[in-house]
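Bench log. Compound arrived from synthesis this morning; before running ITC I wanted a structural hypothesis for how magnesium ion sits in the protein. Inputs:
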Amino acid sequence: MNNYKEKLMQFVFFIAAGTSVLAVALICIFLFANGLPAIGKIGVFEFLLGQKWKPSNNIYGIFPMILGSIYVTAGAIMIGVPIGIFTSVFMAKYCPKVIYPFLKSAIELLAGIPSVVYGFFGLMVFVPLIREIFHVRGTTMLAACVLLAIMILPTIIGVSESAIRTVPKEYYEGALALGATHERSIFRVVLPAAKSGIMAGVVLGIGRAVGETMAVIMVAGNQPRMPQGLLKGVRTMTANIVIEMGYAAQLHREALIATGVVLFIFILIINLSVSALNRRFENGSN
Amino acid sequence: MSKLKVENLDLYYGDFKALKDINIEVSEKEITAFIGPSGCGKSTLLKSLNRMNDLVEGCKITGTVTLDGEDIYKSMDINLLRKRVGMVFQKPNPFPMSIYDNIAFGPRTHGIRNKGKLDDIIEKSLRDAAIWDEVKDRLKKSALGLSGGQQQRLCIARALAVEPEVLLMDEPTSALDPISTSKIEDLAVKLKDDYTIIMVTHNMQQAARISDRTAFFLLGEVVEYNDTETLFSMPSDKRTEDYITGRFG
Ligand SMILES: Nc1ncnc2c1ncn2[C@@H]1O[C@H](COP(=O)(O)OP(=O)(O)OP(=O)(O)O)[C@@H](O)[C@H]1O
Ligand SMILES: [Mg+2]
């Protein structure tokens, strides 16, 4: 009886685990089956490195969008990661008990806000602000970077904070007992001990930034041309797909799915480089 | 003159009075052992001597602790105090970094950047802690790869690297096998030439073997504090006698 039950549970677990694998496999198959032929028709180099995207003329180069995604994400990371890490350090090691619950729920709330609301906020606040300050059209790469930085904060803060909290307190005490200050103990001993967890948080943040669509579309301007600076508009890969999917047909449509393939490969590369990085860390410290 | 002097010290964890009217003088370059049943306040007193109790919320201390005549709870800089009064914890706690960086952490904290000087300190500390030969070929490897006994000696080396005057050791051998234990005991005796050592131990033979003076704790009080020989051969208090002869609950 027990044995039977165990077998059954094992089967249930197996099915559950299988579901996500199956989902990934199906997505892969769909993307590649629909996207790769288009890349073949357009030409790999013309598609990936082509600087012009003019579906009406049958020109499909997504290099501007690839760069757009990279720039916007990099900008968001440069702003969001330091703020996120410092916030998580504050929450785990400095925050007075009275403030903590408020801060914590504020950040959880930040995570729960739908991205279209973020986009709206960006449109109403950052875009006019940038227009005022720099006298340009407000919908710019800068607006997208700042907005994305805010959007990835909760992810980075949440993961980093729990990584910092799981560092054994013996490390911290050991550093203090050697005469190190609170700051030095945290930044030289506790944070390095939490680095792989913090790294994971940053990568999740990158993933979110690369994949974010709605909010970016609302503030980034979305011109399908090579990015020309922080104060000019930019179109990301996700935006490219969403904006044109509604009316695209035939090769145009396939080219958009192929954009999805590239996006997918991006995420794959990010994940792989992180596990490689983590392995390096572990080897370095073992 | 005594190196460390504890006078009329009371310590509360919240409402709980963990130490009651402690008076102890520790002489320079001696080993002082703290013995007593579990929960009697040995670790608590030890942590009061380098102010690690400051980390415990709700911990209140009255009375005075002086190091070379200076009150450690008054004007003394807390980081400087902890540099002068080093600590080895019951559970070995090497940092998750290389052996070299573990030892270098303290000296770097106190401003030593010169590579040659650091190298010298690291070799000397590791030699003093009797672990140099075992790790000299793997200084760049992680300290977490060492055995428990090696880790504890590494932690002793790490404490020595900041050149403390007093070394507090909280049951440094409780997690170790007999060979590692005797290595650390030998080490303590050797270190006595240069350092003042206070050691908490549950092992009565250990206290008798290596310490010069012994304090017997019971329920937050120091029942008896005397020369180790006297305390073990002619205890003046009945409770001490019961404890050291093993007749104690
Ligand atoms: N952080 C703390 N908060 C509240 N009470 C504490 C704290 N640390 C210790 N105590 C209490 O203080 C008393 C003394 O504890 P302490 O750790 O000093 O005992 P000990 O003599 O070192 O025991 P052991 O031999 O088991 O290590 C115990 O009753 C313990 O429960
Ligand atoms: Mg203890």
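What the model suggests: Chain A has twelve helices and two strands. Chain A touches chain B through 20 residues (CB under 8 Å).
ITC booked for Thursday regardless.
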